[in-house]
UniProtKB/TrEMBL annotation:
UniProt keyword annotation of Transcription regulation present: no
Gene Ontology cellular-component annotations: membrane
An annotated Gene Ontology molecular function: metal ion binding
UniProt main location, coarse: membrane
The keyword Transmembrane helix is annotated on this UniProt entry: yes
Transmembrane segments: 33-56, 76-94, 115-139
Highest rank taxon of the organism: Bacteria
Localization terms from the record: Membrane
Species annotation: Micrococcus cohnii
Protein name: Succinate dehydrogenase / fumarate reductase membrane anchor subunit
Keywords: Heme, Iron, Membrane, Metal-binding, Transmembrane, Transmembrane helix
Amino acid sequence: MSHATETTIAAPRTGRIDPKYTRSKGGKGNFEMLAWLFMRLSGVVLVVLIFGHLISNLLVGEGIAGVDFGFVAGKWADPMWQFWDLLLLWLAMLHGTNGMRTIINDYAHKDRVRFWLSMILYVATAAIIILGTLVIFTFEPCMVDASGQLLKDVPAFCHG
Ligand code: HEM
């Protein structure tokens, strides 16, 4: 094994921080404790959701070769999979966003940098959660083209 380069990341909120950027430890109630707890609980649920997602999409049936428009449409015709994917979307996004929030708070020392990175993160998260939720609930499995013909990959139940 070669050890070409070794990088050590400084411990959070240490190093040469300009005193004008030091932050008060002012109370935010118990929000940080709840956020800490949320990371552990959502992590446990995510293991189940992610493995269920991978097994149903890639291991059973035709595997990855079977994943197309009709496959997704077939899954979302089942309220169980709609709920599964909705929960996966929300938990992964809130878990990932809260993790990134922690990293930004720990390593972005300048107030303005921290503010703008957080804003970009929250806007991106809101957009993805809103769009993803809309897609799951407004998805049209039996899509037709401009002439009213069903698309070729629609699930079998569209022809019935
Ligand atoms: C397989 C299920 C997962 C488990 C069990 C899990 C567990 C955890 C736990 C316990 C933490 C807190 C670590 C700490 O406070 O030191 C954490 C942090 C984090 N997680 Fe997850 N997680 C999972 C999936 C995900 C997913 C899908 C994403 C992305 C969408 C993600 C993104 C993050 C990020 C960005 C952090 C912050 C890392 C840090 O503080 O250094 N995790 N995860």
